[in-house]
Amino acid sequence: MTSPEEAPLYGRNPVLELLRAGSRRVEEIAILAEGRGPALQELLALARRRGVKVSYRSREQLTAIAGTPHHQGVAARVAEASYASLDDLLAAPGVRGEPAFLLALDEVQDPRNLGAIVRTAEVTGAHGVIVPRHRSVGLTGAVSKSAMGAVELVPVARETNLVGALEVLKKQAIWVMGATARAGRAPWEVDLTGPLCLVLGGEGGGLRPLVARTCDLLLTLPMRGKIGSLGVSAAAAALCYEVLRQRLVKLPESS
């Protein structure tokens, strides 16, 4: 069912958000033959409206299409998610009339982490995510599944040189702040309401030294328990919500 230009996307919410967004070509949606429920009815209505082919399959066929038994009775054959340019990300804050809020990920390789971070970026109002082209997971079907449809809503730029991309942001008066396990400032001690890019390191060693040196400032989430660090997706969630908190507190002053 797949070709080099196509990939499966599965799960009711991811496929539903894909159809709502209309951002990618959908070749076919396969549904469990005995599938029922309101979410499926909305999904079918959207598919009909967009002229997308719908087929009904057995559970075994859906598992083969999705590559996993955890498909929730829905799989879609879609074009691979496309990447935005860095210029697209830089233009987005102006369109929304907001100070820039971007995330950059330094060699995050677990698709579940990237999916969770993109989802957090969407719900906290970030304008986009930057990932390296090499030694980093891209916008795979597993990422789309973990993001629960957020990859259709948050632009992701894929840059060959992450440090170079961060230098471009700095020239645009965007503060680049890296997350580190120690020796940084607590995020609530820093003004996060201006143009900002949060940089988070990969699952193994965190930020690479050159990436850390490129940052204007380092942030550290204080730890009170016995475990010395958070996973990258959890750290991203904590930092993004601190950005959102500060900006919501400041909002009445600027209105």
Notes on the protein architecture:
With 255 residues, this protein is of the alpha/beta class. The chain folds into two domains: 6-79, 2-Layer Sandwich (60s Ribosomal Protein L30, Chain: A), CATH 3.30.1330; 86-254, SPOUT methyltransferase, trefoil knot domain (Alpha/beta knot, 3-Layer(aba) Sandwich). The chain is built from nine helices and ten strands. The strands form two sheets. Strands 7-6-5-9-8-10 form a six-stranded parallel β-sheet, with helices on both faces. A four-stranded mixed β-sheet has the order 1-4-2-3. Helix 5 links the parallel strand 5 and strand 6 (128-132). Helix 1 runs parallel beside helix 2, helix 5 packs across helix 6 (141-147) and helix 5 packs parallel to helix 9. The longest helix is centred in the last third of the chain and has 23 residues, at 232-254. The chain starts with 5 loop residues before the first strand and ends with a helix.
CATH architecture of the largest domain: 3-Layer(aba) Sandwich
Mean pLDDT: 86
Helix content: 25-40%
The largest sheet has its strands arranged as: 7-6-5-9-8-10
Overall radius of gyration: 20 Å
CATH topology of the largest domain: Alpha/beta knot
Report low-confidence residues grouped into runs of 5 or more: 1-5
Structural class: alpha/beta
Instruction: Please summarize the sheet with the most strands.
Output: 6 strands, parallel
CATH class bucket of the largest domain: Alpha Beta
Cα shape = elongated
Beta-strand portion reads: 15-25%
Order of helices and strands: EHEHEHEHEHEHEHEEHEH
